[in-house]
Each structure stands twice: as C-alpha cells, then as structure tokens.
Amino acid sequence: MNGYQVPPYSNGNSGNGAGPSGNGGGGSGPGSKFGSVSLLSVDPPNINERLPKEIILRVFSHLDLVTLCRCSQVCKFWHQLAFDGSIWQNVSLFEYGKDITGAMVETLAKRCGGFLRSLNLRGCQNLNDSAMRAFSYHCVNLERLNLSDCRKLTNEACKHIRSCQNLLSLKVNSISNISDDGVRYLAKCERLVELDMSWCNISDEGLTRLAQSCRHLAALQLRGCRDITSHGVAELSRHCTGLRVLSLYECGHNIRDEAMQALGANCPELRTLCLSHCGHVTDTGMIGLAAGCGQLRNLEVAGCRLLSDSGFQALARGCPQLERLDLEDCVQVTDITLAALAAHCSHLRILTLSYCELLTDDGIRQLAGGLCAPESLQVLELDNCPHITDTALEHLVACHALQQIDLYDCQQITRSGIRRLVGHLPNLKVHAYFAPVTPPGQPEPRRRRYCRCCCSLL
C-alpha cells in the first residue's frame, strides 16, 4: 500500500472478517500494521427527530412566503409542516400581484382554512369572483381582507364576502365595478371597524344602508365617491357615532356645510378628517365642525377656497389638539389664521400653507412665537407664498424641532437667508428651487415694429 486508507464502514459483520480488529482472513489489513482501529458510526443529527414539531412550526411561522415554499421541497415532513394551516394566519401576495391567478388563490383558501386571519391580495388583477367564493366557504374566520386594485371583481364578490361574519377590516378601493348593490351585501358584515371604498360607484343609498348596519365603523375612506352628498354624510354621522377617521377627498361640490355640522353634532370622537377639494364647504361648516369635534388631530382642507380666517379661528379655539393641518390653496387665509394657531394649538407638528398667497413675514413671526413653535412644529410647507422673505426665516430660528421646510417658488427667499437658517438648525431639510441665472446675451438690433391699430411704422 502506498498510503493508509480507512476501510468502508459496514453496519453488519462481513463474512470476510475485515472488521475493526483487523483479524480477518487476509491478515494484511490496517489492523495488522497499526494495531486495533475502532471506527464508530456517527450519523449527522436529524433535525426532524431532535426538534419537536411545534418548534419547527414556530420557526416556519417567521419565514416569508418564498422561503416557506422552498422549505416545503426539502422532504415530505417539511412539506406537511410548511402547509400547516396554523402558520398561514397572515398572508400577503401583494409582491406577486400580477402573477397570482384565481386558481392559486382558491388553492390557498383550501390550505389555510379556518386558520387564516389576515389576507392581502392588493393588486392581484387576475383575481375573479370565484376565488372569493372559495374564501367565503373555507376561511370563515377571516378578520382583515385587502382587495385594493383587484379590478376584475364585481358585486358578486361582495355577495361572497358577506359570509365572513368576523371581518373587521375590508379594503375594496379602486374597484369601479362595486356599486350600491355590492354595498348591500357588505352591510351584512356588521362587525366591520375599518372600510375603504374609495373610487367605488356608491351613492347616498349605499352609504346609508352601510351606516345602518355597520354601527361599529371607526374608519371610513370614501375618496373620489362623487355621488355622495351631505345627506349621506349626515346619515353616516347619526348611525356611526364612534367614527374616528373619515376621508371625503375629492367628493366634489356635493359635500357642503350641512355635512360638517352633522359631524360636529354626532361624532365627538373624530380624529382625522379629509375634505380636500370639497370646494363648497364654507366657514359656517368649519364652525359647526369645531363646535363638536374637540378631539380632532388631523384636518386636510386643501383647495377649499371658500374657507377664510373666521372658520380657522373657530377651528383653532375648538380643536386645540390639532397635530396636522393642510391649508394648501386656501387662498383667503391671512396672518390672522396663523395668529390663532399660534395661540391655541400647542401640539401642531405639520402645517401646510402652500399657495396661501396673502401670508406675510408677520404671520410667520406670530407662528414662530406661538405655543407649538419651540418643541412641536416639525414640518412647514410655504411653497408659492410670494410675500415671504428672509425675515420670516429669521423668525423660524426659534423652532428648534423644525425638521423640514418647503420654499419652492418663494421668489423673495435667497440662498443666504437659507444658509443662515440652516446655520442655527443644522438638521433642517430645506426644499427650495432657484432658477439658474441666464447670462446676458448680445443686444439685438432695433427692429421696426408695427402698430396693430393703424399698421403705421413706428
């Protein structure tokens, strides 16, 4: 032999006697030359035998969908565990939206069964109504369902969803095929707390039916539902008095002061309200809202051009807990509004004043000296405020918590003013734009001009 070789291990005793002692028939084995060599069998530990099934399931429950499917291909035992319903309680297929088919979703429903609690199918554009039928049959304990942008779904899907009586949160926004007929089925889910029906074709009829049945609603998104009027909002406020979040963004001119007065009278727990681009709301509505919604934290009224200082003065006095206020393009707002906010709203963190063209440096001075400025104010947006100058930036030095300021198209703001502000607030992010300086060109020769009135040469 040129070198020592370990003989292959055998579980049994071979007939040739080539065992560990080397006393076999040939006598020329390693044992005869080096003495007794004992080779022990050391099998690698089997994780399936060393760990309880419950521990492996717990590990699998923390894996993402792709990794879990890969683990299912290791062995039959892992395949069984990987598709155990207990670890499929929260499923999100959002990242694979365009690749998900209705048949795949039906298979998933059968595997998850009653274990499934939360399902995110947002953007699964191939999803159809039959898949919802499978979920309504197998996943009766479903609590959270996101079907946003599943645009092939219709009212028939709502008919199946009504079987999920434990449903607490539902998102069907951007599904234009859902109308008041679909809402009639969804109203059977009486435990709903959160509902998003933005950009669906619903009207006051559907909203009223929903409010009458789902009295526990706390958050409702109705963005872009232009057939909803003040009457529907009033009905909502009467039946869902615990409402905390309501978005009527771009619901149009049908939302008027009566809706705001109804919310103020019936929804004292309201925390967040979006009225952006509801252009017929006036100071009267704002005063009614402020009178009853003292817990309001976030208000968006961008593009509500009929609102003025008197409405926002009432808001500041009645809603001192305000944290975020969006007044973009409220063209009647003046320094008086800023003075009211400075005096009453000590928790204000985010304030948008873009396109409020009547504001001046004095308004910023009052805001910077107010209750919110030293510790609370973090974001201030002043885009396209033509009367704001570097003097306003000097006042903002007192806002120690300020993290971001937007100054696009503020023509009287200079680079040096911004540098001085950043010198006092080094962590501040400034968003501004300065048009590049155009180099002077050669003077053009004087040309003859014609008067358009008499066509005579000038």
TrEMBL record:
Q: Which residues form the F-box domain?
A: 45-91
Q: Sorted alphabetically, which InterPro entries does this protein's record hold?
A: F-box_dom, FBXL15_LRR, Leu-rich_rpt_Cys-con_subtyp, LRR_dom_sf
- Membrane-spanning regions, if any? none
Q: In its UniProt record, which GO terms are filed under biological process?
A: SCF-dependent proteasomal ubiquitin-dependent protein catabolic process
Q: Which SUPFAM superfamilies match?
A: RNI-like (SSF52047)
A GO-annotated cellular component: SCF ubiquitin ligase complex
Highest taxon listed in the record's lineage? Eukaryota
Gene3D superfamilies from the UniProt entry: 1.20.1280.50, Ribonuclease Inhibitor (3.80.10.10)
Pfam families, alphabetized: DUF7885 (PF25372), F-box-like (PF12937)
Report what the protein is called: F-box domain-containing protein
- The annotated regions of Gly residues compositional bias extend over 14-30
The annotated region (Disordered) lies at: 1-30
